[in-house]
Amino acid sequence: MGMFERDRQVFADAEPLDDSYEPEDVRERDEELEKYQRALQPIIDNRPTSNIFLYGKTGTGKTVATKYMLSHLENSAVGYDDVDLSTVWVSCENLSSSYQVAVALVNELRKNQNKDRISTTGYSQQRVFDLLYEELDALGGTVVIVLDEIDNIGHSDDILYGLPRARSNGYVDTVRPVIVGISNDFKFRDNLSPKVKDTLAEKEILFPPYDANQLRSILEPRAEKAFHDGVLTDDVVPLCAAFAAQDTGSARQAIRLLREAGELTQAKDSETVTEENVRDAQDELEKNQLYQGMQELTTQGHAVLCALAYHQALDEVPVRSRDLYERYLTVCDRLDADSVSERRVRDHLSDMHMLGLISVNERNEGLSAGRYHEYELDIPLKTVLDVLNSTSRFEELSDIIKSTADDNNLLQSGISDY
Questions:
Q1: Tens of pLDDT, residues 91-145
Q2: Which positions in this protein are listed as binding ATP (predicted)?
Q3: Average pLDDT of the chain?
Q4: How would you label 338-363 residue by residue, b for 16+ Cβ within 10 Å and e otherwise?
């Protein structure tokens, strides 16, 4: 036999443990699904529908619930002659402005009609919006526009003002756009401009982290399909659920932990996944989680991390938030990106602290300077630069920071430091 042989003793069908897997039902989200159904019901009733915004951390079921509900909505709409429904889905993961979102929407709509894409440059924002209105009007009826990870656009929120008002402003005649926004940032709405808040008139649905019992309920049917009978010991699924619940409450994390435990078992040529395999998988994923945590930061989060990395490269750490904020503004200017308030930068720093990416020290200088916080990286600088370098907008800044660190002999090694 060759180096690679097909596994016949651990995994029966690993697809249910894949991030892209869509379950037949959505578990442990009955209350949220009920709210979602009420929010979408006006579409079937053929009457004006409020925009819908879903909030919750990564892995709490927002995207799965949306795909599930829209699938049922589309199936139901077929039974009514007077309901004309279309859906368009855009991930805003790498989109940092309303202009970029509008271009992505135009191209997604054109793709469905086999029309040529438009360029991401060379048009004014108003022209792109006009093209978007033309494509939407050509569809007609109700168009549900899903903007996944919408918080990446930051303060550039014109798209959230223009789309809800398109019909009343006469930009479209035959279409009713309905926005479904999915955000990992509970405070995203707080940072929208007042005119957008007033225009959106949205229904909000919050997706809290899962507890251990809920995660166990989600894992069990996947585990039953994914593994051969008798492979998992009784404590494997509960332990995976407990680890994920204690950390993030993320179903995605629990599923990945179960899969990693199976893969480690397979690598050892063993026939049984045990508690020890789960604990080994947890150690392995904790290392990878630092990379993933950084990669899943918003553009603003990456800008804050970039500013802190530069102070690290200059050996100017720990750094006070006010000094870090000045560097952050420079980063945003270099990226031609919108900046957020110093308070929001501290929120991003708090999130990164919870992810284990940075350390925070509280200082109290008494009456002279008062109480303040200082920050520094809690992981190797090279690890941060690897992630920034993999994000196209930050490649140039990453190279500058690396050069600065090299000059100061401060660049640490990467994975080996764990």
A1: 998 898 999 999 999 999 999 888 899 998 889 999 999 999 999 999 999 999 9
A2: 60-64, 210, 222
A3: 91
A4: bbbeeebbbbbbebbeebebbebeee
What does the pLDDT read at residue 354?
A: 82
Report the distance separating Cα 221 and Cα 229, nearest Å.
13
One DSSP character per residue, 58-107 reads TTSSHHHHHHHHHHHHHHHHTT-TT--EEEEEEE-TT--SHHHHHHHHHH
Q: What is the pTM of this model?
A: 0.74
Give the SS3 label for residue 180: strand
Write out the binding residues for ATP: 60-64, 210, 222
The secondary element (H helix, E strand) that includes residue 301 is helix 299-313
Quickly tell me which residue has 């940072």 as its tokens.
191
Take residue 315 and report the two structure tokens written for it.
């050996």
DSSP string, 25-50: S-TT-HHHHHHHHHHHHHHHTTS---
3-class secondary structure, 143 = strand
Beta bridge partners of 141: 175
Three-state secondary-structure class, residue 215: helix
Question: How far is 234 from 176, CA to CA, in rounded Å?
Answer: 51
Residue 242's CB is within 10 A of a number of other CB atoms, namely 18
- Give the pLDDT band (50/70/90) at residue 369: low
End-to-end CA distance of the chain: 36
C-alpha dihedral over 168, 169, 171, 173, to 10 degrees? Answer: 30
CATH number for the domain running over 210-293: 1.10.8.60
The CATH number fitting domain 30-206, selected from 3.30.70.270, 3.60.15.10, 3.40.50.300, 3.40.50.720: 3.40.50.300
Question: What's the pLDDT at 365?
Answer: 65
Spell out the residues 6+ positions from residue 38 whose beta carbon is closer than 8 angstroms to its own. Answer: none
Query: Topology of domain 297-409, per CATH?
Result: Arc Repressor Mutant, subunit A (1.10.10)
Residue-wise pLDDT for 226-241, tens only, equals 999 999 999 999 999 9
Supply the pLDDT for residue 259.
97
